[in-house]
């Protein structure tokens, strides 16, 4: 989406086009970068039972450590967006994947809870990968010469965002195979090397024309050439008024979606924290599955979740992203509630858990691209990162509530129901308050 100038004259120039090959290369690299960012992020939740046993932590202490990490992650995520709106999309993507490599390597050297909280907070740089991806690809897809991608941009982006279940699946598979061989520290080290390779590959990607234009306008203002900046902006039909990106996301039509989507993310992450990040814990503690079997089942569950991304990306293009997101999360809450209350036996648990994940994480394929469409170039990375950062207050609240319930004697099945399933269900209704967004070609 491009910002429409208040000048009544139509734009006389258009932004440079991005070729088919660089567009597809950027898409592929974005997918693998997100896979390994998720691998690092989910690995902590998957291995939390093992880490807890190694350091002798109780369930309550482990949940408290996870909550502190979420708080640190939120602070880091919140700072990435404004940085990317200043430095550029390409540099931002190199930063995020480098952060993934750093967090993984540092986690392998964990010596105590305080150290773990510090280094896992750095994982917020990698978690910002999805907001930087959606900012970059939203702008690239608006000016690409690839007609197939322009026509189905939401579905194509769903392939990138499907890196979440893929990364989760890879994490579970690697733990199942390598935990007996290299231990939990070695599993974190495995994420370091591919992240470094991706960071090097990203150095060859082009910057988006939208950001380059904004950079040019800022430079003209710094040089005192305000009249020339207005002329250039009018030629391209964009707003050249200097502004702080963090203020822009709370102005005009952007304000409503900033508030609604932030709250939706916060509440939905009750479900993400319980059923995705702590999925192995739910299976072992709430449904009585052994840790080894929980890894195998989690692989199956996330394979189904991958299909959820593709479905919701396609459905978002066809039926509108907002409604698809809302309906998906409502269905997910119902399915998880059924899994926790009426499902007995491995087959019933896996089927309902898989369908719950299908409708929990799948809508994020539509959500991330929808977020990018809500803002203009000046504040797109800030807006998407700001909303993305609300995942961590959601994780903090979910962790705090879960810790309190467990400490008071509640079992994991009841805790997961009241925190995860109810939170997911509520987030779907919140989404209906968001504004519809029309896609505008650049």
From TrEMBL:
Compartments it resides in: Cell membrane
Transmembrane regions listed in the UniProt entry: 26-44, 64-84, 155-176, 182-201, 259-279, 291-311, 323-344, 350-370, 390-410, 416-434
Annotated SUPFAM superfamilies: MFS general substrate transporter
Domain Major facilitator superfamily (MFS) profile: 26-438
PROSITE patterns hit by this protein: MFS, SUGAR_TRANSPORT_1
Keywords per UniProt: Membrane, Transmembrane, Transmembrane helix
InterPro entries associated with the record: MFS, MFS_dom, MFS_trans_sf, Sugar_transporter_CS
Pfam families: MFS_1
Main location: membrane
Membrane topology of this protein: Multi-pass membrane protein
Name of the protein this chain belongs to: MFS transporter
